[in-house]
Queue: 3 jobs
Job 1
Amino acid sequence: MKELPAPVLAPADFQQRLLGWFDKHGRHDLPWQRDRTPYRVWVSEIMLQQTQVTTVIPYFERFMARFPDVGSLASAQQDEVLHLWTGLGYYARGRNLHKAAQVIVDKHGGELPQTLEALAELPGIGRSTAGAIIAQSRGQRAVILDGNVKRSLSRLHAVPGWPGRPAVERTLWALAEHFTPQERLADYTQAMMDFGATLCRRGAPDCPSCPFNDVCVAHARGETRRFPESKPKKALPTRTTLMLMLCDNRGRVLLEQRPATGLWGGLWSLPQFDDDESLRAWLDQHAPGSQLDPPQATFTHVFSHFRMEITPQSARVERLDSVGEARRWYDPAQPDRLGLAAPVKALLTSLAPFSLTAAPGP
């Protein structure tokens, strides 16, 4: 494969068409475009990774209200950061955002680094995200290649292969570099993301409205749905787990904090067990005299790389004086500000008759 296939347009023509479309149809009033600072752009870019703009907006606004600057984020407890991330998914993003804020305060004087290299060294910031932060917040020339840009360039040039393959990704980076201008970098970067998100969409691209429909190779071939080519599929493995909903006589539910790394790292969850035998053994040891209710219906929670079949198991205990380390009682009627795994949050809000009010949104 050639490193750079013949571009369909000269850079100036490509930029003129894209920015002309953006000026008329792009998004110009997103929350992070108002009072634009490196910090606000950074938080928005992390939230927007694998998440749609409409989903991100309310999370971003709540996050900014609580953490208006990098110092307030760095000094916060991880639980509060993850609480505001609950429901947004991909929780490593929230943990890395918190860690990066602490690094920025400790090593960069509370200011986001101004170079791509220094930004990319921070937790959770890769090459494309660093480029977006630089271009959007400082107007400096930087290249981006997020999922939207990969899709658009793949279709425009009918680039064969899955973009996750290193050789294909190198080709797309070369094309992105070729088209990136020297001016209007913030607008150009937003335009590339908007174009892929609203026009050159994954499932139903709006080819008649596209400013490149006369030169798009995939469109000319009638193969827009083929590009970009999909990752070779593997059957998602399935895991099973029992989630213990242990309630005391005050209607509180026992939670335990997940390890800092791995699945739902740092979040609070219901105690999990591989089978009924291990669950009962745990109860015998930690909550003797507890009463088990019939298990609830199993439901499935899908992750990017596996499926989890969850069976909730309710139990009641009159009293449990010591819950041990990394565990706490949680009152659904007066919920603490904790980061909760999404299926756990759903279970806690459905704990009638124990729950008097639903837990608030993230």
Note: The domain at 238-349 is CATH 3.90.79.10 (Nucleoside Triphosphate Pyrophosphohydrolase).
Job 2
Amino acid sequence: MNRRELLRAAATLPLAHTALANSAFAQAAYPTRNITMIVPFPAGGQADLAARPVAAALERILGKPCIVDNRAGGAGGSIGNAQAARAEPDGYTLLMTLSSLAVLPEADRLFDRPVAYEVSQFAPVARVLADPTLLAVPASAPWKTLQEFVDDAKKRPGQIPYGSSGPYGTLHVAMEMFAASAGIRLLHVPFRGAGPALTALLSGTVQALASAPGTLKQQVEDGKMRVLANWGNERIASFPELPTFKELGYKDVEFYIWAGLFAQAALPAPIMSRLREAMAEGVKAPEVIKTFETAGSPVAYLDAPEFSKFVAADSARLIAAVKKIGKVE
């Protein structure tokens, strides 16, 4: 390098240093404006239950409004997930979504559709809830036990309607997993989210629903519906008398409906660190703990490294289940 080139290179160093400093300052100052937390379902479901108290806690901790945006476009949450995936990786568009995050791209591939998004576009921030799914029926339904339900379904193949949050969403996969194991065929009625599906069960439009304890507990206590089985590996505190599918002989039927916060994979590390700190503090807030425990869904917090491992393991299990179920409507 000659003298002139050396002087020209040296002249750029302060500018480069200033640019780096400004970038670091901008990230350290995060947030400077409102944050949007996309929930890819209507109000009333597990993702919405997780999002609202968490958003309120983040708003208090970060000092800027955190607005829950229900993108209830259907498709099992795929539309809202895809919108979050395409957002700028600046920490101002977050996603509170469910375990179906990994299932939906596989469903697209199964039907040879364009894939709306890939899981690799997201960075897990924190898990908030993780509940086994429960099988609910209206209080007026004739079935008092799971065996009665199965026996009736075998007599009337394809005639018992069940609701879901959309094709290959969490509620759909859980029910088809059970139906395949029991050797029965049910009638799938998809809705735009778990909230509308729950309303349909209460009105008698559908006769069965797989849903999280937090969205069912009050309805069961009010005598509007009953639960027949638990998709978890063990019984849960909010429904201690409810047997698991495994207890009832369905050894391969296990499904959890977890909710977690995600950002984009390219999110700068300083902003990710700030979000992780805020989430770790937020889930300890008394109002958050009380809201979840009242709903029967206690906090099941995992920080980003552990949550990433959890997502990878759970996704592999669910993708295998979807491939086994195959194409269903």
Note: The chain has two domains: 35-130+256-325, 134-230.
Job 3
Amino acid sequence: MKTVEDAELCFPLLPNSSCRKTMLPSSVSLVIHLTFSSISLLTVFLNLLVIISICHFKKLHSPTNILLLSLAVSDCMVGFLILFQIVLIDGCWYLGDIICVLYVNLDYVITSVSTGTMVLISVDRYIAICYPLYYSSKVTAERAKMCVSVFWMCSILYHCVLLRDNLQHPGRYNSCSGECLVFLDYIEGVFDLLSCFIFPVTIISILYMRVFIVVVSQAQAMQSHVAAISFQDSVKVTAKKSEIKAALTLGVVLVVFLICTCPYFCITQITENAAVSTSSVTFILFYFNSTLNPLIYAIFYPWFRKAVKLILTLQILKPDSCNTIIV
């Protein structure tokens, strides 16, 4: 029969080497489990809708949507990673050292890919708004696919090198059985923070400040000349409005991203062990960002709402449904 002390251990059969559980009240533990499970399921489901929409309908194969597809893939993977966080709620890791280091490595990769995709989205909107004459010739779907593919591969390679010692010796830095811990020295940690968060966020902020200034000036110019335009000019104005709306929508995505991720990165730098409790609000907010992106698309993008309707009613199973006019 287990004693109270054994019940507090991750591995009661290894009393001398086992880590101790984080003892939470049963009600708190239940709420955290339900919250993470709900976020995980909702994140995977909503982002799968985005992935299916963009992949299936040919009319959605634009450069901007290719970037949104990359973001949706990384967000969908975040939904699966949340399942591992559910395992860690009581402070114990039961899946072994190899799975631990692979999980942490994948977490690093997905976080950097999400941030990098935000940078690519900012660049895309910057060119579309500030240099519209060059956009169609310089920014193509094929180039967007190439940029996304290269970025994913570079991110995977970079973090494999960064965590090479942990990958070569899984569990090397664990102090007890049931712990999932990877180690980065101070210089590596600072470099990773600069390259994967501070530098990208700085680029995003600068580009979107420029985009916002141009959008405001263009909106004022269109409003002042709307009464004296020809039909041909009205088509150009409509195109401009479309680009401006896309810029504002993706601006909302970027602002939400910064609101959700900045508290997490700030706290991980303040805390001594550079770790945030899985039960903390900042941690939940960090992952919840991946759930919010498809909801933003649903609010601002009519094409996404139409695509979701066709998917949920199984209309996409009909022949030639991929050529449906969505936009």
Note: The chain is about 75% helix and 0% strand.
